Protein backbone atom coordinates (compact mmCIF):
# COMPACT_ATOMS: atom_id res chain seq x y z
CA UNK A 1 0.00 0.00 0.00
CA UNK A 2 1.48 3.34 -1.01
CA UNK A 3 0.08 6.54 0.43
CA UNK A 4 0.91 10.21 0.00
CA UNK A 5 -0.22 12.94 2.35
CA UNK A 6 -2.30 15.71 0.85
CA UNK A 7 -5.44 15.69 -1.23
CA UNK A 8 -4.62 12.65 -3.33
CA UNK A 9 -3.90 9.16 -2.02
CA UNK A 10 -2.21 6.54 -4.18
CA UNK A 11 -3.19 3.04 -3.22
CA UNK A 12 -2.53 -0.43 -4.49
CA UNK A 13 -5.97 -1.45 -5.58
CA UNK A 14 -5.73 -5.17 -5.90
CA UNK A 15 -3.51 -8.17 -6.05
CA UNK A 16 -3.72 -11.27 -8.18
CA UNK A 17 -3.75 -14.27 -5.87
CA UNK A 18 -3.75 -18.00 -6.64
CA UNK A 19 -6.41 -19.84 -4.67
CA UNK A 20 -5.22 -22.57 -2.32
CA UNK A 21 -5.99 -26.15 -3.42
CA UNK A 22 -6.30 -24.93 -7.02
CA UNK A 23 -2.56 -25.35 -7.29
CA UNK A 24 -2.82 -28.90 -6.00
CA UNK A 25 -3.88 -32.03 -7.81
CA UNK A 26 -7.41 -31.79 -6.46
CA UNK A 27 -7.75 -28.24 -7.73
CA UNK A 28 -10.14 -26.59 -10.09
CA UNK A 29 -12.29 -29.05 -12.06
CA UNK A 30 -13.51 -26.23 -14.33
CA UNK A 31 -9.98 -25.58 -15.58
CA UNK A 32 -7.89 -27.75 -17.84
CA UNK A 33 -4.17 -27.83 -18.53
CA UNK A 34 -4.61 -25.05 -21.10
CA UNK A 35 -7.21 -22.95 -19.23
CA UNK A 36 -7.19 -20.77 -16.12
CA UNK A 37 -10.29 -19.48 -14.31
CA UNK A 38 -9.91 -15.81 -13.41
CA UNK A 39 -12.26 -14.05 -10.98
CA UNK A 40 -12.82 -10.32 -10.87
CA UNK A 41 -15.54 -7.70 -10.37
CA UNK A 42 -17.48 -8.27 -13.59
CA UNK A 43 -18.37 -5.97 -16.47
CA UNK A 44 -17.40 -3.47 -17.63
CA UNK A 45 -14.15 -3.52 -15.65
CA UNK A 46 -13.45 -7.19 -16.27
CA UNK A 47 -13.95 -6.61 -20.00
CA UNK A 48 -11.08 -4.11 -19.89
CA UNK A 49 -8.96 -6.66 -18.04
CA UNK A 50 -9.55 -9.10 -20.89
CA UNK A 51 -8.21 -6.60 -23.41
CA UNK A 52 -5.40 -5.30 -21.19
CA UNK A 53 -3.71 -8.55 -20.25
CA UNK A 54 -5.76 -11.69 -20.82
CA UNK A 55 -5.72 -11.55 -24.61
CA UNK A 56 -1.97 -10.74 -24.79
CA UNK A 57 -1.32 -13.47 -22.19
CA UNK A 58 -3.22 -16.05 -24.25
CA UNK A 59 -1.48 -14.97 -27.46
CA UNK A 60 1.93 -15.33 -25.79
CA UNK A 61 1.42 -18.54 -23.82
CA UNK A 62 -1.45 -20.37 -25.52
CA UNK A 63 -3.25 -20.59 -22.16
CA UNK A 64 -6.90 -19.59 -22.30
CA UNK A 65 -8.59 -17.59 -19.56
CA UNK A 66 -12.09 -18.40 -18.37
CA UNK A 67 -13.74 -15.48 -16.55
CA UNK A 68 -15.94 -15.73 -13.48
CA UNK A 69 -17.15 -13.35 -10.80
CA UNK A 70 -17.79 -11.39 -8.79
CA UNK A 71 -15.09 -11.77 -6.16
CA UNK A 72 -16.58 -13.12 -2.93
CA UNK A 73 -14.19 -13.79 -0.06
CA UNK A 74 -16.75 -15.86 1.86
CA UNK A 75 -17.22 -18.09 -1.19
CA UNK A 76 -13.46 -18.36 -1.59
CA UNK A 77 -13.06 -19.56 1.99
CA UNK A 78 -15.92 -22.04 1.62
CA UNK A 79 -14.49 -23.52 -1.58
CA UNK A 80 -11.04 -24.02 -0.08
CA UNK A 81 -12.36 -25.52 3.15
CA UNK A 82 -14.57 -27.91 1.15
CA UNK A 83 -11.64 -28.65 -1.18
CA UNK A 84 -13.87 -27.93 -4.16
CA UNK A 85 -12.19 -24.91 -5.72
CA UNK A 86 -13.47 -23.57 -9.03
CA UNK A 87 -11.21 -20.49 -9.17
CA UNK A 88 -7.52 -20.33 -10.09
CA UNK A 89 -6.59 -16.65 -9.93
CA UNK A 90 -8.52 -14.02 -7.98
CA UNK A 91 -8.44 -10.26 -8.33
CA UNK A 92 -8.67 -9.26 -4.68
CA UNK A 93 -7.31 -6.61 -2.35
CA UNK A 94 -3.70 -6.64 -1.22
CA UNK A 95 -4.99 -6.87 2.35
CA UNK A 96 -7.01 -10.01 1.62
CA UNK A 97 -4.08 -11.63 -0.20
CA UNK A 98 -1.91 -11.08 2.86
CA UNK A 99 -4.61 -12.07 5.36
CA UNK A 100 -5.39 -15.35 3.59
CA UNK A 101 -1.81 -16.11 2.57
CA UNK A 102 -0.93 -19.77 2.94
CA UNK A 103 -4.43 -20.76 4.03
CA UNK A 104 -6.89 -19.70 1.35
CA UNK A 105 -4.44 -18.49 -1.30
CA UNK A 106 -1.13 -20.03 -2.32
CA UNK A 107 2.28 -18.60 -1.49
CA UNK A 108 3.93 -17.40 -4.67
CA UNK A 109 6.93 -19.17 -6.19
CA UNK A 110 9.44 -16.39 -6.79
CA UNK A 111 11.78 -18.73 -8.57
CA UNK A 112 9.47 -18.30 -11.57
CA UNK A 113 8.12 -14.79 -10.83
CA UNK A 114 10.22 -11.76 -11.74
CA UNK A 115 9.53 -9.27 -8.94
CA UNK A 116 11.48 -6.54 -10.72
CA UNK A 117 8.63 -5.94 -13.18
CA UNK A 118 6.47 -4.61 -10.33
CA UNK A 119 6.93 -1.33 -8.43
CA UNK A 120 9.18 -1.72 -5.40
CA UNK A 121 7.36 -2.71 -2.23
CA UNK A 122 4.14 -3.82 -3.93
CA UNK A 123 4.70 -7.60 -4.16
CA UNK A 124 3.35 -9.69 -1.31
CA UNK A 125 3.92 -13.28 -0.26
CA UNK A 126 0.69 -14.37 -1.94
CA UNK A 127 -0.15 -11.63 -4.40
CA UNK A 128 1.17 -9.23 -7.00
CA UNK A 129 -0.35 -5.87 -7.98
CA UNK A 130 -2.87 -5.95 -10.80
CA UNK A 131 -3.57 -2.22 -11.15
CA UNK A 132 -3.36 1.06 -9.26
CA UNK A 133 -5.90 3.80 -8.64
CA UNK A 134 -6.16 7.08 -6.79
CA UNK A 135 -8.40 8.28 -4.00
CA UNK A 136 -9.19 11.96 -4.40
CA UNK A 137 -10.22 13.90 -1.32
CA UNK A 138 -12.85 16.54 -2.12
CA UNK A 139 -14.49 19.31 -0.08
CA UNK A 140 -17.06 22.09 -0.42
CA UNK A 141 -15.12 25.07 -1.85
CA UNK A 142 -17.87 27.49 -0.93
CA UNK A 143 -18.11 26.35 2.68
CA UNK A 144 -14.34 26.30 3.23
CA UNK A 145 -13.31 29.04 0.82
CA UNK A 146 -11.23 30.99 3.36
CA UNK A 147 -9.50 28.05 5.04
CA UNK A 148 -9.69 24.92 2.87
CA UNK A 149 -8.37 21.53 4.06
CA UNK A 150 -4.99 20.74 2.54
CA UNK A 151 -3.71 17.62 4.31
CA UNK A 152 -4.93 14.16 5.26
CA UNK A 153 -4.92 15.33 8.89
CA UNK A 154 -7.51 17.97 7.96
CA UNK A 155 -9.78 15.23 6.62
CA UNK A 156 -9.91 13.62 10.06
CA UNK A 157 -10.17 16.91 11.96
CA UNK A 158 -13.92 17.07 12.62
CA UNK A 159 -13.57 20.02 15.00
CA UNK A 160 -11.90 22.34 12.51
CA UNK A 161 -13.88 20.93 9.58
CA UNK A 162 -17.23 19.68 10.91
CA UNK A 163 -19.56 17.65 8.76
CA UNK A 164 -20.01 14.16 7.39
CA UNK A 165 -17.26 12.25 5.65
CA UNK A 166 -17.96 9.84 2.82
CA UNK A 167 -15.41 7.06 2.32
CA UNK A 168 -15.30 3.79 0.35
CA UNK A 169 -16.81 0.82 2.21
CA UNK A 170 -13.67 -1.29 1.80
CA UNK A 171 -11.10 -0.82 4.55
CA UNK A 172 -8.45 -2.27 2.26
CA UNK A 173 -8.25 0.91 0.18
CA UNK A 174 -6.03 2.49 2.81
CA UNK A 175 -8.32 4.14 5.35
CA UNK A 176 -6.38 2.88 8.36
CA UNK A 177 -3.10 3.90 6.77
CA UNK A 178 -4.53 7.36 6.04
CA UNK A 179 -5.60 7.69 9.68
CA UNK A 180 -2.11 6.67 10.82
CA UNK A 181 -0.54 9.34 8.62
CA UNK A 182 -3.01 11.91 9.91
CA UNK A 183 -2.02 10.99 13.46
CA UNK A 184 1.64 11.65 12.73
CA UNK A 185 2.94 8.13 12.15
CA UNK A 186 5.91 8.34 9.73
CA UNK A 187 5.27 7.11 6.21
CA UNK A 188 8.70 5.48 6.11
CA UNK A 189 10.42 3.46 8.83
CA UNK A 190 10.46 0.11 10.54
CA UNK A 191 8.08 0.87 13.38
CA UNK A 192 5.18 -1.53 13.60
CA UNK A 193 1.92 -0.13 14.95
CA UNK A 194 -0.91 -2.06 16.52
CA UNK A 195 -4.26 -0.56 17.30
CA UNK A 196 -6.54 -1.60 20.12
CA UNK A 197 -10.13 -0.43 20.40
CA UNK A 198 -10.92 1.44 23.59
CA UNK A 199 -14.21 2.89 24.77
CA UNK A 200 -12.99 6.42 24.02
CA UNK A 201 -11.25 5.69 20.74
CA UNK A 202 -7.99 4.05 19.70
CA UNK A 203 -4.84 3.36 21.65
CA UNK A 204 -1.54 3.20 19.75
CA UNK A 205 1.37 1.01 20.75
CA UNK A 206 4.62 0.06 19.05
CA UNK A 207 6.12 -3.39 18.93
Summarize model confidence as the mean pLDDT: 78
Structural class: alpha/beta
Strand order across the largest sheet = 3-2-4-1-5
- Biggest β-sheet, characterized? 5 strands, mixed
Molecular shape: elongated
- Count helical runs: 5
Stretches where pLDDT is under 50 for at least 5 consecutive residues are 1-14, 21-27, 194-200
Q: Report strand %.
A: 15-25%
- Secondary-structure element series: EEHEHEHEHHEE
**Radius of gyration, Cα only, in angstroms?**
20 Å
Taking the alpha carbons of the first and last residues, their distance comes to 20 Å
Helix content: 10-25%
Question: Strand tally, please?
Answer: 7
Describe the structure in brief.
By secondary structure, the chain is of the alpha/beta class.
How is this structure best described in words?
The protein has five helices and seven strands, in the order E-E-H-E-H-E-H-E-H-H-E-E. It has helices spanning 45-61, 73-82, 94-99, 152-156, 175-182; strands at residues 8-18, 35-39, 64-68, 89-92, 128-136, 193-198, 201-206. A five-stranded mixed β-sheet has the order 3-2-4-1-5. The protein has a two-stranded antiparallel ribbon with strand order 6-7. The radius of gyration is 20 Å and the shape is elongated. It has 207 residues and is α/β, with parallel strands linked by helices. The longest helix is centred in the first third of the chain and has 17 residues, at 45-61. Helix 1 (45-61) links the parallel strand 2 and strand 3 (64-68). The model is unreliable at 1-14, 21-27 and 194-200 (pLDDT under 50).
Amino acid sequence: MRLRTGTTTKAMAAGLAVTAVAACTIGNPASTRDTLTFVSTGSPFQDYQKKAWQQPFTARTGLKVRNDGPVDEARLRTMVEARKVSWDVVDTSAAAAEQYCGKYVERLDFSVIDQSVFPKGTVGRCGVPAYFYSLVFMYDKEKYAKDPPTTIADFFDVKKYPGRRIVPPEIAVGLLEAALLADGVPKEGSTRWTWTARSAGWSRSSG
